[in-house]
Write a structure and sequence with these properties.
CATH topology of the largest domain: Hypothetical 12.0 Kda Protein In Nam8-gar1 Intergenic Region, Chain: A
Helix content: 40-55%
CATH architecture of the largest domain: 2-Layer Sandwich
CATH class of the largest domain: Alpha Beta
Distance between the termini: 37 Å
Number of helices: 9
Number of strands: 12
Shape: elongated
Structural class: alpha+beta
Low-confidence stretches: 1-10
Strand content: 15-25%
Radius of gyration: 25 Å
Length: 240
Amino acid sequence: MSLNLGKEKVHFNVARLKKQGNKFEVVIDPDLAIKFKNHPDSVDVRDILKSEHIFSDAQKGLLASKKLIEDLFGKDVDDLEVARRILLEGEIDLTSEYREKLLEMKRNRIAEIISRNAVDPRTKLPHPKQRILSAMEEAKVKVDMFKNAEDQVKDVVKKIEAILPISMSKVGFEVKVPPAYTGKVYPIISKLGRKKSESWQSDGSLVVDVEVSAALELDFIDKLNKATHGEVIITKKKEV
């Protein structure tokens, strides 16, 4: 996926394709355009376009020459297909406002993931999200707005651990759930932990070997006990 993140101020989010020295642009919804670049079959091109016109310069409102479009894209190709090719083959140029919005969302998502999965090794308690955001700012962490937040967590933790004592350790549990509560417990285990194995016992109870972030340990135990009225058997195995 090609994205133009230059400092030139733009007033529209556009997709742009250059062919033989000529520029072709369409005005877009940036969220849908980025989704389309990653998964073309998941979005209708009509939903992406703010206008179905093909521009040579969208900011100036200059339409591309029909003859030039026919010469470079084909005589039988309509504007919608031209727009599709611009989106697929070209680059996306985002407004500074949208770039900042995307960066803020990504910073917050990374901080949330770290807060839910890391602890202060001295207290074994999770760091609040705002504390992590402050450490990211102090460490001058640069976030990639188009890279998955999950894929950036490891690098961010390395950069802030000199400022903030932090550990991404996990805890293993064996959880035995009485038959009456398996339906309530299963979603909790799936949401808060990583199931390593499970087995159904002859009495209908469920035994699950699960790994949970140390930051979620107390929350995990509390939710299991509430869902089963304290009848669940939780055996802590080890911290990894």
